[in-house]
Design goal:
Length: 384
């Protein structure tokens, strides 16, 4: 199971948590520490937030004992991590804790989270959901007539490298006649053999990560050989060609790969938004705007939720039946009649509800059309 699949499984598990009145502490940390000052800043952040949580829920509060136990366990764990000998398991770390519910879950991440601590009756999963949506892997194959290197990237960081060298591949010479023709066939055979070996390694890695963005680079002739040796299933993933020298330094390669990933991501985001809004306009299997999307999510109809990055929508949620709505909280829930509906950030609650029903999330970084629609849209399984 890949890191993304592991994190996704944990995310879906957390999103399905039902409210039983017990509190859950959700803690997100940036653990990319390169100085003692950053470690100390995180320690103080956690210590201060936990102090506020315990103070807010005093000894007479029904949540006090559970929260106090969780706060102490989290404090000790963070003290271990920020100590001079501590070693956080990733660049980011999410901790979900509820003493009352027997929950303690640590999820290391390959990139930093924004430092955040939230107390609610269900886990706060938005940052984790965004991580899964943004999780990008890439494989780059750089080839020339005698050598190759294949690089694997996760979130733009180098995750693996394989090198293939065939220094014995003969070069060209300039004799004429039949001798030259036979020699040229000999050269071509060796070069094609080399490139086919490179293609085999590249295909093996690409098949092992079907979600990875694929990139190729090299001089025209070996690059053409390489593309001709790739199976249809790999070519259908539309590998992007980059103008990189085989000896390019890793930082230069990473910048080129990241630029390629971002370009492809923006193209796909624009297509998703366009298709979804056109389908919604035509009355098909799509919804646009907070009210329509909330209505679809309430019935488990959302297959893909599109959220504009940074969007916040005022809404409400019924703690009894988890029904969502826009605007001010009503006196009674229109779905179950329960009282005590609560104001919420509707976007965050939509993310949780959609994930709990098996839907997916796509965070859209820029889109005027989606902004005009209220910051949210959705592709639907069925019309609610």
């Amino acid at each position: 199971m890949s890191d993304r699949e592991t994190i996704l499984a944990r995310l879906q598990e957390l999103a399905r948590f039902e409210e039983d009145g017990s509190p859950v502490i959700s803690l997100y940390l940036d653990t990319l520490w390169d100085s003692a000052a950053k470690r100390e800043a995180v320690r103080l952040f956690v210590k201060d937030k936990l102090r506020q949580v315990v103070a807010l829920h005093g000894k007479d509060h029904p949540w006090h004992d559970s929260l106090a136990a969780d706060a102490e366990r989290i404090r000790r764990r963070v003290e271990e991590l920020v100590s001079p000998v501590g070693a956080p398991p990733g660049r980011g770390l999410a901790i979900f804790a509820s003493h009352a519910r027997g929950l303690w879950l640590e999820i290391p991440a390959p990139r930093p989270f924004e430092n955040q601590l939230v107390v609610r009756t269900v886990p706060h999963v938005f940052q984790l959901a965004r991580l899964v949506d943004d999780y990008q892997t890439a494989i780059l194959c750089q080839v020339d007539s005698r050598s190759a290197r294949i690089l694997e990237f996760v979130f733009g960081g180098l995750a693996g490298e394989e090198k293939i060298d065939h220094p014995d591949v003969p070069g060209r010479h300039h004799q004429g006649g039949w001798s030259q023709m036979r020699y040229q066939r000999h050269v071509d055979w060796h070069r094609e053999k080399h490139v086919r070996e490179v293609a085999d390694v590249f295909v093996r890695l690409a098949d092992g990560d079907p979600m990875a963005r694929l990139f190729l680079s090299g001089p025209p002739e070996p690059l053409a050989f390489l593309k001709s040796a790739l199976p249809k299933r790999i070519l259908e993933r539309q590998p992007t060609e980059l103008g990189l020298e085989l000896g390019a330094e890793i930082p230069e390669v990473m910048r080129a790969v990241l630029a390629g990933i971002e370009e492809k991501e923006r193209e796909e985001e624009a297509r998703h938004v366009r298709e979804t809004l056109e389908e919604a306009l035509a009355g098909g299997l799509a919804a646009a705007g907070p009210a329509e999307v909330a209505a679809a999510a309430n019935h488990g109809a959302v297959s893909l939720l599109l959220v504009l990055d940074g969007a916040r929508v005022e809404g409400w949620r019924c703690p009894s039946c988890s029904w969502l709505g826009t605007g001010e909280p009503p006196a009674a829930c229109p779905a179950c009649g329960g009282e005590g509906t609560q104001a919420c950030d509707l976007v965050e609650r939509l993310v949780e509800k959609v994930l709990a029903s098996g839907g997916d999330l796509d965070v859209i970084h820029e889109s005027e059309a989606l902004a005009e629609a209220g910051g949210v849209a959705a592709k639907l399984r069925f019309r609610a």
